[in-house]
Amino acid sequence: MAIAINIRADNASAHEIERLWDQVAAFEDEPSMRVLAYRPHLTFAIYDSPQIEQEIAWKAMLRATEGATRLTLAFKRIRWFAGPPLILWAEPEANEILGRWHASISAAIDPVHCRPHYRPGAWTPHCTLGTRIANERSQDAIAFARSFDRRIEVVFDVVDCVMFPPVRIVAQQELPKGAP
Fold first, then answer.
1. How far is CA 1 from the centre of its chain?
2. pTM of the predicted model, to two decimals?
3. Collapsing DSSP states into helix, strand and coil, what is residue 167?
4. Which residue, 18, 68, 121, 167, has fewest beta-carbon neighbours within 10 Å?
5. Could you give the number of structural domains in the chain?
6. What are phi and psi of 91, to 5 degrees?
7. What is the rounded CA–CA span in Å between residue 21 and residue 61?
8. Residue 149 sits in a domain of what CATH number?
């Protein structure tokens, strides 16, 4: 099992991302996101190494987000990782808080234990929309991504630590509302 530390949206603002999940599912051989039974999220790190226990990962996440409030992120683009399989994801607008949290986690836990795509210098903040794009639908999926012309704002209000597969939340903390 793997351990991941994330920030997720557990509120109504997540519905626009979930709507994109449903649209992207049309390009997949089987829908990938709804079956997770897990809300829209951004992952800071994934550890497969047996040396990293969930308590260590969770403490690193809590230290990184100490004193933090809910984080509103705007998404204006859909991008993709080439794969195979092709993966579509929503790109958040630049946000220094995400980078600061990721750096804090990487300073607390040696990145050698982290999956390569989540290490410093390689990590790309993203909110996954679909992980099982069928090869024969990849060009349609890319056209869909390129045609996206909206701006979505999502409030990320919970930090957590999960084990997967299947996704099982082992620790979580709601982030307080910020100053009005």
1. 18
2. 0.96
3. coil
4. 121
5. 1
6. -95, 120
7. 26
8. 3.90.1140.10
